[in-house]
Amino acid sequence: MESHTKKMLRIAAVFGVVALIALVFVGDRFLKTKTTNAQSSQQGQVGERKVLYWYDAMNPQNHYDKAGKAPDGMDLVPKYAELEGTVAERSSGKKIKYWYDPMHPNYKSDKPGIAPDCGMDLVPMYEGQGEVENGMIKVTPERQRSLGVRTSVAEEKVISRTVRTSGQIVADETRIAHVHVKTPGWIENVYVDFVGQLVKKGQPLFTIYSPDLVATQEEYLIAKRGQKSLGTSPYKEVVAGSESLLASARQRLLLWDLSEAQIKKLDDTGKVNKTITVYSPVTGYVTDRKAFPNASVNSDTDIYTVADLSHVWVTADVYESEMPYVKVGQRAVIKLSYIPGKTYNGRVTYSYPMLDPQTHTAKVRIDVANPGLMLKPNMFSDVELQITYGKHVVVPQEAVLNSGKTQSVFVVHEDGKFEPREVTVGQTIDGLTIIEFGLEKGETIVTSGNFLLDSESRMKSAVTSEPQH
Known about the structure:
alpha+beta; 5 domains; 4-stranded antiparallel sheet; 28 strands; 28% helix; rod-shaped
């Protein structure tokens, strides 16, 4: 019985070993088959997709034309064309027209790849993106928002500006009188004895002793007595001669600035006046004086200078660029810094022909009434000149792109189209630029984002032609 049991155990052990061997064999075959199928599947996928190039995962800029190992020992990774195109189209929802080099937009290709010059990946150009038609660039609303595009309307309006400058007050040269004597002599009495004194027209200034004036007075009295005695002569020639002599002596007194009243006094008294009184020819202020008692004077001595300051001049400096717009008769406003709120109105009466070489400004003369004599010669003042440029088409200053040689604006059209248009510009006043030519009123132009739009336009103009490769 025991022998039979041992026999059965040996048989069971043999069958267990056989079963274990079979199990190991079958499992190994199963694993090999599964691995082979997986590799076959992977190889099939690789075969279905075109590999553009292989690159180093740690240094993606390093591209290779076949599989292998990177310098750092890692396996090179394949770059699939179908995957890139699929992802690009799937992410944008648009069909790709072609691919281009972002660094050199003139290079274009009908399939993805790498740029030959810089080694960068080609960038897809989608349908409807950056289309250029008849010189216009078409930009989607989304792209406009990303560029920050804002618009405005060109307007036609009267443009004017206020030129603010400084001026200096001077006496009106047409209202300045100089007092001289026409015969040499000596001053005896002085009635106006300081600079700045106000004198009235006809007011005595000084008295002068002149031997020539005394002699002429004596000649006049002799001629007057001769005319009286010879006036009854029966000879007409004698009467005419006496009258002519008297008239000549009287005229000489008048030419030497004796007044009619002084000559009448000479007629009434019949006595020669040792001194003659000289009177002020105008009303004004004494700005210079050389009259002193016992001083000797000649005909060329400027004894008094009297200025009428009821009107004064203001000479203002105007930049040469503004001179064409400053006209004679133009209104000007004068202000004094020490009298806030007080203004004086004047008119431009003259524009000086010379330009200051230091400041490159020209002077204009403004005639101003001076009630109360608050405007004093040699004062400085603030001057405002209203300059009118007339009616023009204007746009905001930031709407104009200046390349140095040309100026242009972007005109907005329907369907997201923008037209780069060259214009001729004029002055810029208070943030508005005058458009002399190239734009009509009512047209919509870009005022913000135009620099980015210009870059977009130039790039798209370069890449929208047919692919070259």
